[in-house]
Structures are given as C-alpha cells and as structure tokens.
Amino acid sequence: MKKALLVTIVGAFILFQAPLASSEEKVSSLRGDHELDKPAKPIKRKKQKKSGDGIERNWKLQPPSIPHSVEKDRVNLKYNTCLKCHAKANAEKEKAPAVSDSHFVTRDMKVLEKLSPRRYFCRQCHTPQADVKPLVKNTFKSNDIELNNLLIEKTK
Ligand code: HEC
Ligand code: HEC
C-alpha cells in the first residue's frame, strides 16, 4: 500500500515537473538563454564615445547625450560629480556648458535658486553613447515640429 502511494506521488511529481522543465528551457530574453535564477553574466563594458563638439539632438527639447566618458562620475546623496563642472557657478571655469534654466524649475513650476531635486540624477535623462549594435530594432524618426509643439503645449 505504502509502495503504491509512493509510486503515485513520484509519478505525479514527474508529470508536473516535465512540462515545466521543458518550457523553462525555451525562455530566451535579452539576457540570452541564461538561467533566470542564476546571477547575470557580467556585461562587457563598452568604450564610451567622446565627441568634443557634442552630439546632435534629434529634437529641440531632447536631453542632450553626454559627449564624454562618465565612468568616474558618481551621483549619490553625498556627491554629484557632474555638478563640479556643470553647476552654474563652476561651468565657466571648467569650460563646460552650464545646466539650463529648466533645471531650476520644480514640478509645481516654482523657480528655485538651487538645482531642482527632480534634476539631481542627471543620467535619468542624459546618457553616454557607445558604438554598438542596437539590442532591439528601433524605428524612431524625429518629427521636430510636431514633437516640439506637443512638448510646449504640455508645459503650458
Ligand atoms: C570635468 C568636467 C566635467 C564633468 C565632471 C562632467 N562633464 Fe559633462 N561636459 C563637460 C564639458 C567640457 C562638456 C562640453 C563638451 C566636451 O568638451 O566634451 C560637457 C558636455 C556635457 C553634455 C552635453 C551638453 C550639450 O549641450 O550637448 C552633457 C549632457 C553632459 N556633459 C552631462 C554630464 C553629466 C550627466 C555628468 C556626470 C555624470 C557630466 N557631464 C560630468 C565637462 C564635464
Ligand atoms: C528630467 C530630465 C533631466 C535631468 C534629471 C537632467 N537634465 Fe539636463 N537637460 C534635460 C533636457 C530636456 C535638456 C534640454 C532642454 C533644456 O535645456 O531644458 C537638458 C539640457 C542640459 C544641458 C545643456 C544646456 C544647454 O544650454 O544647452 C546640460 C549641460 C545639462 N542638461 C546637464 C545636466 C546635469 C549636469 C544634470 C544633473 C545635475 C541634468 N542635466 C539633469 C533634462 C534633464
């Protein structure tokens, strides 16, 4: 009797496990077919693109891409190394463009003396660039006039 019960339990276990195991093997995401419960493989670091003349914007109000390496920059509660060059007080000395006036406006449209907290984490909007093959197909086309009008309308 006990043996029959054991066989039933083991049988049921195999039955339920088998389809699960095979569907798990098929999971393939941008991480590849790497098992989901294993730590991700370290990503090979790509060399960041440098461009002294800046990187062209696709539309007028696009946050400009970062034309220099930011490997050594740190943004946390204690420091924001980007501001060492880009804060209004330091920009001229560092020959860097200063953050624009929009960076002092809060979401309630109040103009602050200091940088608005919502602009503190620079890389939320500004990203460094590298020469790489896109991970997914991108069909974005800039449509300057329409997009600008839409953005201006929204900030009114
Ligand atoms: C050592 C000074 C320095 C530091 C630190 C620095 N930058 Fe820059 N940044 C520059 C200079 C100078 C330029 C002008 C282009 C050039 O010479 O590369 C620039 C250009 C830029 C631009 C392009 C602006 C435009 O209008 O095209 C962005 C965006 C930017 N930096 C963001 C950042 C962010 C975000 C950080 C921190 C992660 C940072 N920078 C840290 C000096 C610095
Ligand atoms: C919420 C998104 C956002 C964050 C966060 C942000 N920016 Fe920007 N930034 C923009 C946009 C959008 C523009 C272009 C339009 C404008 O100037 O307002 C811009 C423009 C700039 C420019 C170009 C100014 C010019 O005169 O052309 C610099 C430099 C810059 N940002 C630096 C920074 C730095 C440094 C930080 C962090 C302290 C930062 N930004 C945080 C969105 C952001």
Key terms:
elongated, mainly alpha, binds heme C, Flavocytochrome C3, Chain A, domain 2, 156 residues
| Uncertain runs | none
- Share in helix: 25-40%
Bin the strand percentage.
Answer: under 5%
**Order of helix and strand elements from N to C terminus:** HHHH
Radius of gyration: 26 Å
What is the annotated CATH architecture of one domain?
A: Orthogonal Bundle
In words, what does this structure look like?
The protein has about 160 residues and is an all-alpha fold. It has a domain at about 70-130: Flavocytochrome C3, Chain A (Flavocytochrome C3, Chain A, domain 2, Orthogonal Bundle). The protein is about 30% helix and about 0% strand. The protein has four helices and no strands. The protein has helices spanning about 1-25, 85, 90-95, 145-155. It starts with a helix and ends with a helix. About 5% of the residues are buried. The mean pLDDT is about 80. Bound molecules: heme C (HEC) (2 copies).
